[in-house]
C-alpha cells in the first residue's frame, strides 16, 4: 500500500522529519499514472519499496549524526571561514561535483533510483568520504532523488525511471570534516518541451542569483533575483525549501530564501552557503508524505532544482561546486 499524503503547511521543511519505511512493492507492480495537461506529458511519482540502509566502513571519518541520527548544533551566526577551512570546503565540494558528474552514466529508462543510490554510495566511500544524507535526522539513503512532481527529498526506491522523467539528484559528501553539497537535473530519454524549459529556467535562476553574490550584498537579494527571473520564464518558486550555510555542519546559518523576502543579513568574505531554488510549473504548495521526507506538489506539477555551494570572496564569489 502506498502511504497516504499528509498535508503540511511549512515554511522550512528541510531538517525536521522522521523516516517511516514504505510498504514492499516490486518494480513490476509499480502503477504508472500518466499526466497530459498544460504542464506537459509525464508520469506522476508515488513512493515504492525502500531497501535497507547501506553501511559505511569503520575507517571512513563520519559526521556526529552517523549513528545517532542527531546532528550537532551549528553556529548561531553565519560562519566566516579562514583559509584552512576554505581549503577543506573546496576539497569536499570538488569531490561532490566530480561524483555528480558521473550520474549521467546511470540515467536511462528501467534503472531504479535505489540502484543509482547504491552506485553513488560506493563511489563516495571509495573516495574516503561519507554520504552526508545517510541517517541525517533518520534519512535512510545516501542521496536524494526527486522525480517529476516530487519537489525535494525524494528517497531512492525501486521505482524504475521512465521515459520522459526529469529528476534532481542531490549529492553531499563529508570529507576531511567538511560537507560539500550540490545537485543537478537530469532527463530520462525523450523529455517534452515544457520539462526542458523548466530545467533551463531553473539553471538560469541559479546562475543569475550567483552573479550578485559579493561582500556587503543582502542575503535577501538572492530571493528577489530568483523570483523575478522565474516569473519572467512563466514559473513559480516553491518557498518551503531554503539554501543554507555549510561547513563542518550540514545545515546552518544563513538561511537562503529563494523568493522575495526581507530577511536581514549581509554577505561577508569567508562565508560559504548553498543556493538551491526549486521552480514549479504550478502552485507553490507542497505535501510531505508519510515517509516524513518526500515533498510532492499538491497540484501534481513538475518541479526542478539545481544547487551549488558558493564562497564569498573579497571581490565577489566563487562556485566551490563548479
Annotation field: number of helices: 5
Derived from helix and strand composition plus strand pairing, the structural class reads alpha+beta
CATH class identity: Alpha Beta
SSE topology string: EEEHHHEEEEEHHEEEEEEEEEE
> Segments where pLDDT lies below 50 for 5+ residues?
1-25
Précis, in short:
The protein is of the alpha+beta class. It has helices at 65-68, 83-100, 113-126, 193-211, 220-232, and strands at 5-7, 33-37, 40-44, 130-131, 144-147, 150-152, 166-175, 178-187, 236-237, 243-245, 252-256, 272-275, 278-280, 286-289, 295-297, 303-305, 308-312, 317-319. Helix 4 (193-211) packs antiparallel against helix 5.
Write structural notes for this entry.
The chain has 5 helices and 18 strands. By secondary structure, the protein is an alpha+beta fold. Helix 4 (193-211) runs antiparallel to helix 5 (220-232). The protein has a single domain (5-50, 75-319), classed as Alpha-Beta Complex (Creatine Amidinohydrolase). The longest helix has 19 residues, at 193-211. It is globular and about 50 Å long.
Amino acid at each position: 500500500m502506498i502511504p497516504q499524503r499528509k498535508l503540511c503547511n511549512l515554511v522550512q521543511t528541510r531538517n525536521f522529519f522522521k523516516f517511516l519505511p514504505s510498504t514492499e512493492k516490486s518494480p513490476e507492480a509499480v502503477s504508472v499514472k500518466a499526466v497530459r495537461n498544460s504542464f506537459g506529458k509525464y508520469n506522476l511519482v508515488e513512493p515504492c519499496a525502500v531497501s535497507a540502509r547501506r553501511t559505511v566502513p569503520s575507517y571512513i571519518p563520519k559526521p556526529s549524526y552517523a549513528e545517532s541520527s542527531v546532528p550537532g548544533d551549528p553556529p548561531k551566526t553565519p560562519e566566516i571561514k579562514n583559509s584552512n577551512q576554505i581549503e577543506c570546503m573546496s576539497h569536499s565540494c570538488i569531490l561532490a561535483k566530480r561524483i555528480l558528474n558521473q550520474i549521467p552514466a546511470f540515467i536511462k529508462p528501467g534503472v531504479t533510483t535505489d540502484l543509482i543510490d547504491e552506485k553513488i554510495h560506493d563511489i563516495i566511500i571509495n573516495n574516503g568520504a561519507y554520504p552526508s544524507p545517510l541517517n541525517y535526522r533518520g534519512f535512510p539513503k545516501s542521496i536524494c532523488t526527486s522525480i517529476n512532481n516530487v519537489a525535494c527529498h525524494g528517497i531512492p526506491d525501486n521505482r524504475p525511471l521512465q521515459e520522459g522523467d526529469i529528476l534532481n539528484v542531490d549529492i553531499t559528501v563529508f570529507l576531511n570534516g567538511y560537507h560539500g553539497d550540490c545537485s543537478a537535473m537530469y532527463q530520462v530519454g525523450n523529455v517534452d518541451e515544457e520539462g526542458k524549459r523548466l530545467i533551463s529556467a531553473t539553471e538560469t535562476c541559479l546562475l543569475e542569483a550567483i552573479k550578485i553574490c559579493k561582500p556587503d550584498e543582502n542575503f535577501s537579494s538572492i530571493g528577489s533575483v530568483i523570483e523575478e527571473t522565474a516569473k519572467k520564464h512563466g514559473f513559480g518558486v516553491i518557498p518551503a525549501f531554503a539554501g543554507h550555510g555549510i561547513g563542518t555542519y550540514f545545515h546552518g546559518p544563513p538561511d537562503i530564501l529563494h523568493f522575495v523576502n526581507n530577511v536581514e543579513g549581509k554577505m561577508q568574505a569567508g562565508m560559504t552557503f548553498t543556493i538551491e531554488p526549486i521552480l514549479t510549473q504550478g502552485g507553490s504548495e507542497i505535501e510531505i508524505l508519510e515517509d516524513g521526507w518526500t515533498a510532492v506538489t499538491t497540484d501534481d506539477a513538475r518541479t526542478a532544482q539545481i544547487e551549488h555551494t558558493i564562497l564569498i570572496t573579497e571581490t565577489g564569489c566563487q562556485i566551490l561546486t563548479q
